[in-house]
Amino acid sequence: MEFIDLQAQYRIMRDPVNRAIQEVLDSSRYINGPWVKELETVLARFVGVGHAVGFSSGTDALLAILMAWGIGPGDEVITSPFSFIATAETIALVGARPVFVDVSPDTLNLDPELIEAAITSRTKAIMPVSIFGQCADFDAINAVAAAHGLLVLEDACQSFGATYKGRRSCGVTSAAATSFFPAKPLGCYGDGGMAFTQEAELAQRLRIIREHGQIEQYRHTMLGINGRLDTLQAAILLAKFPFFEGEIQARLKVADRYATLFASKVRIPEIRSENISVFAQYTVRITDRERVRAAMSSAGIPTAIHYPTPLHRQAVFASLGYGDEALPQATLAAREVMSLPMHPYLTSEQQDQVALVLLQAVA
To answer: Is CATH 3.40.1190.20 the right assignment for the domain spanning 6-100+108-242?
Structure first.
């Protein structure tokens, strides 16, 4: 059994994907080919914003947005401690200080009620993470930000395609960034990402930053990065995109069936009524995780831990001085979370096998 079955997906999409790759090869326009701009247009329309800017990864998209906002040394950015390292890494890379605020115990997204107490005169932005494919509580977060004149950057690297109160992830904050890493809900065949915003000026700055700060050849007006989205990856994403809505619906059916199979026997993801998740992961909570994982592995069922060490406990952020008592929900989640096989092509028989082994292990 595959944790994420990319081969099953490729077999369905083989012809359009192969045609797209061949078109790029025939054109030899590997850098900044027209497929990049086309993808930006298509995905901006899908999200419902004015501008999308392709990047070489979701990490680079996050980094470029912070750079474009001028966030740097002496500034603080409030974010979640329960995420992949890229979330806080990008804040530190621009010279700012990550300020961790604990997560809600039900969704594991940033807890809006705890944000205000973390705001100081140095706070410039809030970076909530839409973890596991479910949007954070953006109305509450945006309200706190507006009251203090702060920017909000959605780390949507797991939630592209999700909705919050009928609005798409990547379209409900000052700016957003997503990832097209192959395992993501919409994935390419390498690294890729995109930034989203309603603001034309910000979008233009992002385009300059991704080209080494260049406004025309060999004229550099600001520091930038080599952050371009490869033409091949853009073409692959365009070929895959017509299948995306169907895959979201398939993910929801898999998640619904898991919920039915586990009933009240396993602590399953809580999806808020205003949200539609894309279930980038299907993550349950297990108190005796290592024993259960061993039982799953013995039965040939892959599992993963997203994430075993919260960011405030990573050695690279030790100097920030957070103890586990400061962020108890993130600390507890890191000890309990376990992700199960989840993808649009997971069969009912495979789900039955996962449920049988898991329920026997937790009994």
So the answer is: no
* Cβ contact 161:178 at 8 Å: no
> HSE on the CB side for 81, CA within 13 Å?
34
Kindly state the helix (H) or strand (E) to which residue 282 belongs, with its residue range: strand 282-285
Given this model, what pLDDT does residue 165 score? 98
Q: How far apart are CA 229 and CA 102, in angstroms?
A: 33
Pairing of strands 275-276, 123-127: unpaired
CA dist., res. 151 & res. 69, Å (int)? 9
Looking at 67-118, which runs of residues are DSSP E strands?
Answer: 76-79, 97-100
CB 283 within 8 A of CB 262: no
Superfamily of domain 244-362 in the CATH hierarchy? Aspartate Aminotransferase, domain 1 (3.90.1150.10)
Nearest 10 degrees: Cα torsion 58, 55, 41, 12: -60
Distance (Å, whole) CA 116 – CA 329:
18
pLDDT surpasses 90 at 324: no
Torsion-angle region of 149 (φ positive above 0: left; ψ -120 to 50: alpha; else: beta): left
**pLDDT > 70: percent of the chain:** 100
| 183-203 confidence digits (pLDDT tens) | 999 999 999 999 999 999 999
Structure tokens at 117: 């107490």
Average pLDDT of the segment spanning 291-316: 97
Output the pLDDT for position 242.
98
The pair of structure tokens assigned to 348 is: 């009912």
CA–CA gap between residue 161 and residue 149 (Å, rounded): 28
